[in-house]
Amino acid sequence: MSEDSRPPDPTSGTPGNAPRPGGDHATDPVYSQPGRVEPGRAAPGRAVPDPTQAGRTDAGAERRGLGTGYAGPDGRAVRWPDGDQPGTQQQYGTQPSGTQPSGTQPSGTQPYGGPGPAPFGPAPSGSRGGWPPGPGTGWGGGAPVSGSRDWRERGGGRGGLVVVAVVALVAGLIGGVLAAVGVQSASGGGSGGTSLASPLPGGAPSAAPVGSVEQIAAAVLPSAVQIVGARGEGSGIVLSADGLIMTNNHVLAAGAGGGLRAVFTDGQVVPVALVGTAPAADIAVLRASGASGLLPAMLGDSDQLRQGQPVVAVGSPLGLSGTVTTGVVSALRRPVAAGGSSGGQDTVIDAVQTDAAINPGNSGGPLVDSASRVIGVNTAIASLASGSGSGGGEGGSIGLGFAIPINQARRIATELVDTGEATQAAVGVSVQAGQPRGAAIAQVAPGSPAATAGLAVGDVVSRVDDRIIEDANAFVAAVQSTPPGQVVTLTVTSGAGGPRKLPVTLGSRIIGGR
Asked: Fewer CB within a 10 Å sphere, N or C end of the chain?
């Protein structure tokens, strides 16, 4: 058993995406990595891989969750897979919320562009498939263009049918009035005297206010890069003018069988080579071959973040490069367990939680503050598993996104570039959920920092320094987010005794390299 690992929880035994006792599969939260490419599903013209670092949910695997250790407060398991769940693949280019509900549509209504009667009269002659073209325009469109994306709104379906039906009814009731207005306007002398004839605004556009989303986007977009492979895509952060890039380790799966390319905002498209990777921290560093004149990102201080402060996420969700979304820091020190290595080893991220929209393809991109400084690397999302449609694919953003704090990512990337190895703190224990809270010590490695400090099997850790430890994941995240060699103070309870303080000097383990 590896250091700082958590043993399987015997109470969890449901493999894959089968509905678990006490929870409806259609509404259970599923956690995945948004830059992760998924097996078995692809948009037209794009193959999708079987990634090499799939999280595992075999029978007997422990239940891990968002700050809940092995199960939620109500006893329901919360899964934190690596984005690769059998039957829950993200299909690029489709609506993340699932497929349109089945059932008979009201007569004469085609809200998604299917053929149907015109609500304002017959379609103009010569139109192909109806006019205007596109979804929900009344007369419907022709057959969808091959390879086009499905741009239905989340929450379409029957609600949309009702709206269209009501619009059609109102149009019918006032059709005569519209016709009369049209006749009067046609004889009224054209567009003169209307807003259509007004001149365009003059003068140069005003400068974007400092700290506005517009100003942040202008400053950060040149430092964000799209990473494209034969089997998917992700995002990255420019670290140097000559093409050093930081991204997530799981984004590398997109290049399986064909390599990766970096697409910059100035139009440069160049191949990239691996500098180093740390799967257990989900960080990788790449070098763009032949790139020049790039704008390196400004890195901030994630230790200074405050809950509620505004943030902006930048990346390439679903291949849409240069996408900007906004939100706030929803929470700090949020333990997020997600698979980060080919051996199924868990990555426990001491994450920054945000409600800025993060979707598949955002992984590895920057999360920035109002001063345009990178304060996190977008890495994972929580979404609701879809119980309908083919494959039961996962949905997209529901306002629960997670980023690796930049101070942790910076340290790992610096080690990979300077030494070719990446390290992570370790104490030499395995832990499980304590009762009613805390992390219970299950094993202590002989000669480890924990053994030297006097930690014993059965002890329950309730704090690391001033940080409250809710469960095993929180303990692992607190240790792994601290640099090796530092001294931390554990608050420990043994049996019926009272809490005591134990100083522990953190050890080190190698978690990656070139």
From this structure: N
